[in-house]
Amino acid sequence: MAAGTLPPFDPADPLGLDDLLDGTDRALRGTVRAWAGERVLPHVAGWHERGEMPDVRGLARELGALGALGMTLTGHGCAGASAVAYGLVCLELEAVDSAVRSLVSVQGSLAMYAIDRFGSPEQRARWLPPMAAGETIGCFALTEPEHGSDPAGMRTRAERRGGDWVLTGRKMWITNGSLAGVAVVWARTDDGVRGFLVPAGTEGFAARDIRHKGSLRASVTSELLLDGVRLPADAELPGARGLRAPLGCLGHARYGIVWGALGAARTCFETALDYARTREQFGRPIGGFQLTQAKLADMAVELHKGLLLAWHLGRRMDAGRLRPEQVSFGKLNNVREALEICRTARTVLGANGISFEYPVMRHMANLESVLTYEGTSEMHQLILGKALTGLDAFA
Q1: Distance (Å, whole) CA 37 – CA 45
Q2: Where is the Acyl-CoA dehydrogenase/oxidase C-terminal domain (predicted)?
Q3: Which of 128, 129, 114, 136 is nearest to 196 (CA)?
Q4: pLDDT at position 97
Q5: 328: closest CA among 261, 251, 391, 386?
């Protein structure tokens, strides 16, 4: 570039954040964006409206072929990719629908991550290769009907019976539950909370899907029932002791949400920007009115501030320096701001904002779930409040 000249302003990248990515990251982003645009985008509005995701197992295998499942893990067929690369994948998947990102997040950042971090060599060798390939789907069962934000109150029990474990209880709001070939189930024992691998088809284990959802309608969400489920001793995750184990998995998944929520926000912002340029009222495009431009400017500022935050947290994760409080910082800010961007985009579209001919209402509804799961905004505020003051306000 000649001295004294500047690159043109890019409405899609006003801060020039692409300069922070290397060629490999940009190529991966392009590959996933193209896949999602071809395989999911043309159909997802109908899936959402009907409350289904047809051929989810086929999609899982395709995501496995892309290296998107358990992609930050190494070995056993996993890609060993960077945290930033994983974040970009979450961004592109949620740009088409939160349900697709949730499928990948639960598979890789919760179920596979738990097995990789806390499992035995035999458990990793058995489960991780088919899960990385998308041939086996996993789920992560922590939340219960009466205990969401307070997992310490879980009632699911695991008791010793000879050399076996017997599990009894219920889990609720479990993504991929009825699809899973293996469930990572957390239960209370006489020695504290432990994790167990429960294969599908085990006697006493059942999953039933939750219907009539107003959000994440294209995602499979289930209730898990454990009625005297007998497991051999080697079904226990040997490295998982206490609530720190499942909470550590949630921290890894929350990081993906920091990026993913901005995918939904980006789609809504781009939809609003295009609409403002073409929709005419009072004889000219509504994008020429001051109030509309103020909305678009505010949306762009929050979207790209959030992307800069996500990139920063990703670099810290890659350096092994990302603290749980910093993940809470990212989830609190980015999901909250993403939801506000979607709501503002809906006002730009006016009455058309509620139509499924446009993606805005679908993304806005999905983010209502993202706002709540893996830690509500209030819980992340308290995590940050405790870190800032040194005082525990949870009790």
Answers
A1: 13
A2: 241-388
A3: 114
A4: 97
A5: 251
Please give the positions annotated as active site. Answer: 374
Class of CATH domain 17-132? mainly alpha
Residues of the chain with pLDDT under 70: 1-3, 148-149, 395
One fold for both 138-235 and 244-389? no
The whole-angstrom separation of Cα 383 and Cα 305 is: 22
- Give, in degrees to the nearest 5, the angle at Cα 119 between 115 and 123: 85
Give the length of the chain.
395
Within 10 Å of residue 59's Cβ, how many Cβ atoms? Answer: 18
Show Cβ contacts of residue 9 under 8 Å, excluding neighbours closer than 6 positions.
Answer: none
Domain ranges of the chain: 17-132, 138-235, 244-389
Q: Of all helices (H) and strands (E), which one includes residue 75?
A: strand 74-75
Unique residue bearing structure tokens 């992609």: 71
pLDDT in tens, 84-132: 999 999 999 999 999 999 999 999 999 999 999 999 999 999 999 999 9
Q: What is the pLDDT of residue 92?
A: 98
What is d(CA 309, CA 251) in angstroms, rounded to the nearest whole number?
Answer: 16
* pTM exceeds 0.85: yes
Q: Which two tokens stand for residue 150?
A: 């307070």
Cα gap 305→83, rounded to integer Å? 18
C-alpha distances in Å from residue 220, one per residue of 144, 275, 343, 365:
17, 32, 25, 16
Among residues 103, 128, 106, the alpha carbon closest in space to that of 115 is found at 128
Q: Which of 198, 201, 287, 191 is nearest to 241 (CA)?
A: 191
Cα–Cα distance measured from residue 85 to residue 315, given in angstroms and rounded to the nearest whole number: 10
Structure tokens at 46: 């109908």
Pick the CATH number of 244-389 from 1.20.140.10, 1.25.40.10, 1.20.920.10, 3.30.565.10: 1.20.140.10
Q: Where are the beta strands (DSSP E) in 286-368?
A: none
pLDDT for res 148: 65
Start-to-end Cα distance in the chain: 58
Q: Which residues pair with 80 in a beta bridge?
A: none
Q: What are the structure tokens assigned to 180, written together?
A: 């899973």
Fold of 138-235: Butyryl-CoA Dehydrogenase, subunit A; domain 2 (2.40.110)
User: Residue 198 and residue 206: Cα distance in Å, rounded?
Assistant: 11
